[in-house]
Amino acid sequence: MILPILSYGHAILRQKCQPVTVDYPELNALIDNMWHTMYRANGCGLAASQIGKPITLFVVDSKPTFENYTAEERSRYFPQGDEGITETFINARITQRFEETWEDEEGCLSIPSLHRKVERPWSIEVEYTDRHFVKQHRMFSGITARMIQHEYDHTQGILYLDYLQPLTRKMLESKLRKISKGHISVNYPMRFRK
């Protein structure tokens, strides 16, 4: 089922999310719906809070990005041997952010039409539970690590806009107001603030 994505301005997007328990009602259906919703919106990641569920759950698929990149882009954005992931992250926790950082453009399905450069660590270590409730502890780098950090931030009530300089954010205020009121056209269902 395709679910509407909350637009910028919804209070849930600013909430710190609650842990997911193994008995969370209809968890598998929710995860399936998140994947369908993300793909319908042509996204590479989606957090449960973006569909109105303030729980520590997100999905990331960096494989299509790898497949669509040129060989030169692949070598720039993916470590050697990495072809991307398709993964569900439950109760994720970033346990280490490595020193090397890089800047790249980010966007968000909840903030359509806006993209800005954000500096993030190139590599991270993450502890999480997969959709089968198997505990994982993995290191991710490059564009995959960026996608994970972006979605993880959603579970903490943080948006990529929070990393921008105050002047840049000030210049975006009128566009953000339009987005929050639904004065924007997107090709996927959204819930705007009333």
UniProtKB/TrEMBL annotation:
<keyword id="KW-0408">Iron</keyword>
<dbReference type="InterPro" id="IPR036821">
    <property type="entry name" value="Peptide_deformylase_sf"/>
</dbReference>
<comment type="function">
    <text>Removes the formyl group from the N-terminal Met of newly synthesized proteins. Requires at least a dipeptide for an efficient rate of reaction. N-terminal L-methionine is a prerequisite for activity but the enzyme has broad specificity at other positions.</text>
</comment>
<comment type="similarity">
    <text>Belongs to the polypeptide deformylase family.</text>
</comment>
<feature type="binding site">
    <location>
        <position position="154"/>
    </location>
    <ligand>
        <name>Fe cation</name>
    </ligand>
</feature>
<protein>
    <recommendedName>
        <fullName>Peptide deformylase</fullName>
        <ecNumber>3.5.1.88</ecNumber>
    </recommendedName>
</protein>
<feature type="active site">
    <location>
        <position position="151"/>
    </location>
</feature>
<dbReference type="InterPro" id="IPR023635">
    <property type="entry name" value="Peptide_deformylase"/>
</dbReference>
<dbReference type="Pfam" id="PF01327">
    <property type="entry name" value="Pep_deformylase"/>
</dbReference>
<feature type="binding site">
    <location>
        <position position="108"/>
    </location>
    <ligand>
        <name>Fe cation</name>
    </ligand>
</feature>
<keyword id="KW-0648">Protein biosynthesis</keyword>
<feature type="binding site">
    <location>
        <position position="150"/>
    </location>
    <ligand>
        <name>Fe cation</name>
    </ligand>
</feature>
<keyword id="KW-0378">Hydrolase</keyword>
<keyword id="KW-0479">Metal-binding</keyword>
